[in-house]
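Quick entry, no commentary yet.
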Amino acid sequence: MSIVTNKKEKKFLTEEELKTLKEIQTQTQALIVELGEIEITKLQLEERKEKGKIFLQTLTQREKDFSKSMFDKYGDINIIPESGEIQKMK
C-alpha cells in the first residue's frame, strides 16, 4: 500500500504505460472470449461424439439383425452389396 503525503497530489501513468495497460486488458478480454468459445465448441463436439456413439450402436445392431435374418433365410451366403447377388458359401 502506498503512502500518500498530500491528498491533493494525484499521480498518473505515462501515456505509454496507460496504452500498454489498456492493450493488456483488451487482449485479456479477447482471450477470455476465445477460451469461452473453445469450451462451447468442445461441449458441442462431445455432444456430437455421444450421438455418434449411439448411432454406431444402433447401426451395428441393425447390421447384426440383418445378417442374422439373411442367414436364417438363405443359409451361409455371401452377398455382393453393389448388385444384391447372393452367392452360396462353399
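second:
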Amino acid sequence: MQAAPAPAGPAAAAVPAPAPAPVAPPPPAPAPAPPRIVEPPVVPPPPAPAPAPGAAPAPPPPPAPVPLKDVFFDYDKAVVRDDQKAALTENASWLKANPGAKVLLEGHCDERGTAEYNLALGERRAKAVKDYLIGAGIAADRVSTISYGEERPFVLGHDESAWKWNRRGHFVLQGR
C-alpha cells in the first residue's frame, strides 16, 4: 500500500506539525551549601598587671670576672717557667678564696710536631700546672686536666709570634 499524497494548498496548513524531538530533562539543582560555622573570635589574654613603681626586683648582679690567667711554656717543654709562677700563685690564691670553684686545665701546643706527640705534650703541660696548684694547697679533686695538643690554637700563624701564645695551660672554670 502506498501512502496518500500530502494535500497541497490551504488544506496543507491544517495538517498537524510533526512532534518535537524529546528534550533532555534539566540538570539537577546543585546541592545546598553546608551550613556556615561561625567560630567565636580569638581573644588574647589580658596583659599582666604592671608592677608597682619601685617594686620591680633588681636584676641579679653580673658574675664577678674570673681572674685565672693562662700559663705559657717554652718550645717542647712541660716545665713551669719562672716568669709564669707568679700567675700560678695568683690563680692558687683565687682558688683558695673560692673554695667551691673547680677548674679544668687544658694543655695546648703549637703546630710543630705530630698530632700524637702534641697531645702527649699538652697532657704533660696540664699536669705540670695541676701539680703546681696541688703543691700550693689546692685539693686535687678540684682540678681536672685535658689535652688538646695543637687542635685549638689561641693565635693563628706559622711563626714564633703565634706559637708562643699557643704553648699554654688554659684555665676553664667549671663551677663555683
